[in-house]
Amino acid sequence: MSGPIFGYLQTRAPVMGPAPSLSSPELQHWQLRLDAQGVAWLLMDQAQSSVNTLSGPLLEELDQILAQLEASPPSALVLRSAKAGDFCLGADIGEFRRLEGEAAVVQQLQRAHAIVNRLEQLNFPTLAVIHGHCLGGGLELALCCDLRLALPDARLGLPEILLGLHPGLGGTARLPHLIDPLQAMTLMLTGKTLNARRAYQAGLVDAVIEERHLEGALRAAREGSLSRRPRRLKSKLLNTRAARQIVARQMRAKTAEKADPTHYPAPSALIDLWQAHGGDADAMRQAETRSFAKLLHTDTAQNLVRVFFLQEKLKALTRGDAGPVRWVHVIGAGTMGADIAAWCAYKGLAVSLHDPKADSLAKTVARTAELCRRKHLDETRTRAVLDRLVPDPDNQGVSRADLVIEAVPEKADLKRAVYAEIEPRLKPGTLLATNTSSIPLEELQQTLADTTRFVGLHFFNPVAHMLLVEVVAPAGASEETLARARAFAGQIDRRPAPVASAPGFLVNRVLMPYLLEAVTLLDEGLAPETIDRAAKVFGMPLGPLELADRVGLDICLDVAQMLAERLQAPMTPIPTCLHEMVDRNELGQKTGQGFYRWEAGKAEKADADDPPAGLQDRLLLPLLNACMSCLREGVIEDHDLLDGAVIFGTGFAPFRGGPLHYARQRGYREIADRLEQLRQRHGERFKPDPGWSDP
Amino acid sequence: MPAIDNASDKARDGRAVYLVDGTRTPFLKVRGKPGPFTPVDLAVQCGRPLLLRQRFAPRAIDQVVLGCVNVLGTEMNPARVAALRLGLGEAVPAFTVQINCGSGMQSIDTAWGLIRNGERELVLAGGAESLSHAPLQLHPRAVSWLAELRQARTLKERAKLLGRLRPGLFKPVVALQQGLTDPVAGLNMGETAEVLAHLFRVTREEADTYAVESHQRLARAHEEGFLAQEVPPAIAPDGTLYAQDDGVRPDSSPQSLARLRPVFERPYGQVTAGNSSQVSDGASWVLLASDTAVQRHGLKPLARLVDSHWAGLDPEIMGLAPVAAVAGLLRRRELALDAIDLWELNEAFAAQVLACLKAMADADFCRQALGLEQALGQLDRRRLNIDGGAISLGHPVGASGTRIVLHLAYALRRTEQRLGIATQCIGGGQSGALLIENPEAGR
Prior knowledge:
Distance between the termini of chain A: 56 Å
Number of helices of chain B: 15
Structural class of chain A: alpha/beta
CATH architecture of the largest domain in chain A: Alpha-Beta Complex
Strand content of chain A: 5-15%
CATH class of the largest domain in chain A: Alpha Beta
CATH architecture of the domain at 185-226 and 305-436 in chain B: 3-Layer(aba) Sandwich
Strand order of the largest sheet of chain A: 12-11-10-13-14-15-16-17
Oligomer: heterodimer
Number of helices of chain A: 29
Order of helices and strands of chain B: EEHEHEHEEHHEHHHEEHEHEHEHHHHEE
Largest sheet of chain B: 10 strands, mixed
Number of strands of chain B: 14
Radius of gyration of chain A: 28 Å
CATH topology of the largest domain in chain A: 2-enoyl-CoA Hydratase, Chain A, domain 1
Strand content of chain B: 15-25%
Distance between the termini of chain B: 36 Å
CATH superfamily of the largest domain in chain A: 2-enoyl-CoA Hydratase, Chain A, domain 1
CATH topology of the domain at 185-226 and 305-436 in chain B: Peroxisomal Thiolase, Chain A, domain 1
Shape of chain A: globular
C-alpha cells in the first residue's frame, strides 16, 4: 500500500544509530556515530550520489576512519548504507576504465585490498547491515565484517563475470571460505544475485531481520547469541587440493557449455584461481589481483564494460520530469499486446487490456500468472499482479489511461479505425502509442486530430526478456510526448532507444539483411545448422535461421516486404523459399515447423559442419552495412546509442561491444573493402554504405 | 402479533438515493470441489469492470458494504479486502454484513441509510459468496481429543487417549450442511420448504413446472442478451473464461424433473434438487449515489430506492416471510399489489415461492395471520422473476439479495416499467423487501 500516513512514517523506519555527533566535517562519503553502548555506526554515504559505489576517495576516507577506530576502539562497529535504496552497487567501474596498464591496476587494487584487510583485522566485533543491492565490491567489503545481517529486500551477489571479470577485492578468496565453495564458485561464475532468504540459506548472511528488529539483533550479536554458523565439513573438504582438482575439471566443462572460453576468458581464469590457490586465502588474494588486472585489459572485458555504460546511457534517457504513467491501456491481446500488458502489470502499473475476443483476454490472464510463476512471486503478489490487469472487453480503459498502447494486427486501416474510435475519449495529456513494427507512423497519424501525443513504442518478443523498446518519433510528436514515452520505458525497467520513423526503424532494418542473407545461403545449399553455427561462432546467442523461426516466418516476410517496398537502397531479394514456407504455414516455432522442426520449444538440429571461410562476413556484413546506413541517415542519433540498441534489441554478441564498435575495431576501410568484394561476387545488396568512407 | 405491525414508524425521509450501476459475476454451480474463486475473488471479478466503466475514479467511493455469509479465514472482513484489491485506496471504510440469505440486500439497505442520512455520497454495496469454499470442519469431540493428546505428558496417558480413538471421530463436518440447518427449529431449509408445501398444498407438479419455467426464462435472457451489461465475464488465474451462468438447463421438463427423488424428506417429500435453488458461487455489486454525487459525476441513475421493509416469522416457515415484508411495505406506501410492475422473489425453493403466491391471494390467511383487511392479491406470474431465478442460476446466499435488486432495476429499464419489488426469504425466519422506481418511466 502507499497511503500518505504509512508513506510519511517510512521516513522514520531506518535505524542509523544516534543523531550525527561524531561526524567530522571533513568526512565526505561516510558518517560516523557513536551510541550510548559505545557502538560505532559507520554509514556509507557517497557524496553527490543517490547510490554508493566503492570509489577511490570513498575507500581512502574509510582508511582514515579505520585508523581512528583502531586508535580509540568502540565496543563494536555497525557498517551500513545511509542511502534509501541500496547498500552498495560495487566498484566504480568508470575509475578502472581510466587506468592505463596492468601495473596501475594492480597498484590500485593492492591499495584497496590493504584498506579492506584493515577492516577485517579490527579487534572488536564488526557487523554489516545490508539492505537493497549489495553487489561486487560492496559485498566484498561486507565479507570483511564478522557478521552480516540482511533486511528482507537485500540482494547480494558478485556479478563481475557479466563484465568479463571476476571479483577483485578479495571476494574470490573470502567467499569460498565462508560458504560452500561450490556454491561460491557458482555464484561468481553465473553472476547471479541471491535474495535475503537464499543468502541466509547459503550462509552468506547470518540472519535475515526486519528493520524493526535491528536493535534486538545487535544486542543478540553483542551477547553472543547471534553468531556465525559453523562451516560444514563438506565445505572444508571441497577446499582441499585433491577435491579442487576434480571439481575444477567438471566446472570447466560445464562453464564452457554456457560461454565459449575463447570469447569469455574470465570464467576459466576464475576456476584456475580457485584450483591453484583455493586452500590459501592470502595467496589467492594476490593471484586474484594479477588475474583481475589481466582480464581488465582483454577486449572482452573492455567491450562488456562498454556495454554496461551503453546500458547506463540508454537508462539515462528515461530520466526527466515527465509525470509517471499510472494506468496503461493496451488494445489487442495478441502475443505482443498480451505480453506488454502482463509485463506492465508485473511492474506495478494498473493495466486494462482490450480485445473484443474474451478468449484472448482469458489467455492473457493465464500467461500473466505464468510470468509471475517464472518470476517466483508468492501467492499474494501474484494475486496483486492479476488484480492490476483488468480484462476490458468493452474498451472502457481508454478514458482512464495515461498511455494507450495499440497492438492490433499490422493493418493500417484497422489501426486508423481504432484511433478514430478512441481519440475523442482520451484524457488530456494521454499518450497514444503504436507497437507497429512495419507501418510508417506518418501513415497512421494522418487521421488523428492531435498528432503531438502520437508515438511509436516498439517492443520486442518476448517482452519479458528483451530489454529494448524503440521509441519512435514521427513528425509531429511533441518533445513532452517523447520524453514521457522514454520515462515510461524506465518505469517498466526497459531501455528506450529513440529512433526516427524510418522503415523498419533501427532493429528490424539492420536485422533483416542478415536474416535474408541466411535464407539465401540456405537456398544455395548450405545446411541451416552450418549457417547458424557461423553466427554463433561469431558470438550471436542464436543463429539467424533459429531466430527467424522464433520470430515467425510470416512476420519476417511482412517486414522484409515492407522494407523492400520502402527502402531506397538495394536489398537482398526475398528468397522464394520464404514465400513458399509461409504459404505452407511453416511459420517456425509456433507451427512446429520452420527452418527447423520444433519440439517442446526446442529446435531439432543435426550436428553442424564447420562453416566455410568467409561465411561469417557474408552473414554479418549486411547487418553492419545497414547499421552504417541508419547512422548516416540519422535513424538514431549516435553510434553508441546504435550499438546499445542493436545489442539489447537483437542480442548482438555483447563481448564485441556493438556492431559499429566491432566495425571500428576491424577498421571501416577493411569493412568497406570486404563489402566491395562481396558485391562483385554476389550483387548490389553488398554495396558499401558511403558512411564507411567518412572519417 | 401480526407480523407487519412494526412497519408503521419507518418513514423514508432524507436525501434521494439512486442505484446508478451494477454488475454480477456469472453464477457458477458448485461441483463438489473448491471453485476457481473465493468470495473476494468474485467481488473483484465483477467489481473491476463496474469501476472501469464509471466516469469517476474508484477513489471517489466513500464507503464499501459487502454481504457475505461464509467468510473465509483467509479473508476476514471481505468488504475491506475487496476494497483494497479493487484499488479504492486505504482510506475508505469497508464493513461486512451478515443476515444469512438477506446479506446482499442488507448491504444495499445499510448503504442507502448512510447516504440518505447525509453521511456518505457514493457507496459500493454488494454481496459475495463462494459456497464451494465452505470448509470441512472437525467435530468438537475430535478437537477436544486432539487438545488432550497435546497435553498428555506420559506415554501411558497417550496410550489411553489412543485407545479412545474411534473410527468416525475425524469424519469432517460439512460447514455448509450445518449452516443450512436452523439451530432453533432444528429443520433443514429444505424441510421448511416441505412444511410450506404441505400447509399451502403446493403439489410436486406445480413446483416442478415452476422450476422448468425458471430455466426457460433464464435461457431466453441469455439468448436475448438481456444480461450483457449486468454480467461481465469472469476469468480465473488459469485462464478459464466464465462467460455465463453455468447451472441453467433449458432442456429440463416437468417429466425429467418428476424423475428426481426428494433430497430432504425421503421417501414421501417433494422438494428435489430440481425444484430447489442451486448451490453456487457468485458476487454482485451495485453503486448507490446521492443526488449530489449524481450531479457531481454526471451519473445516469438506473433506479431510485423508494422504501424497504424487513419482517420475521417462525423459522419453521422461513420461506413464507416475504409475504410479511411485502405486506408491510405495500401498506406503508399505500400501494396495491397490482401497482407493482415487476417482482423479484428469490427462488430458494419452488414450493416456497408458490406458497408465498398462494398466501398473498389467500384472503383468510391475510386477515387472520397478517391482520390485513383482505387478500394482498394475485401476483401475476408474468411479472414475477421474468428472467429466471435462483432455481436456474443458483443461490450464492450472500450475493442473491444484491442480484435480485440489481436485476430488477435492469428489468424495469428494459421493459420500460416503473415500480418493482425485490424480496427474499432469509434462513432463520426473516425477510426483506425493497421497493425501487425506474426514474425514466413516465408516471
